[in-house]
Amino acid sequence: MNWVAWLLIIGSTTGVASAWSATGQMLYQQTCSSCHGRNADKQALRQSLPLVTLSREQIVTGLADRRDGQIQGNPLGQRAKAGLTDQQIDDLAGYIRSLSSAEAAQ
Fold first, then answer.
1. Does the pLDDT at position 38 exceed 80?
2. CB within 10 Å: which end of the chain, N or C, has fewer?
């Protein structure tokens, strides 16, 4: 089953908020977690701040700037961000912020 169909099923059964969270989670696990850590709490290549410490606006701006070539970084990270849509960036930011909220609750 492709990811779009999967999201439609998730969204129809659990609501829109869960759909963006599921999309963000999937994208994060596939493209970000190897450098930023499973819980977005690691410094990627000892250069970036842990993502959970950033505001939603900082995450969105950082991802969009990397995607658009305004910020250059590690080639692997650059490639991972190059194809992101605005919606995917928003989904990622929402998921990363949910990790921050979960961490604070513990």
1. yes
2. C
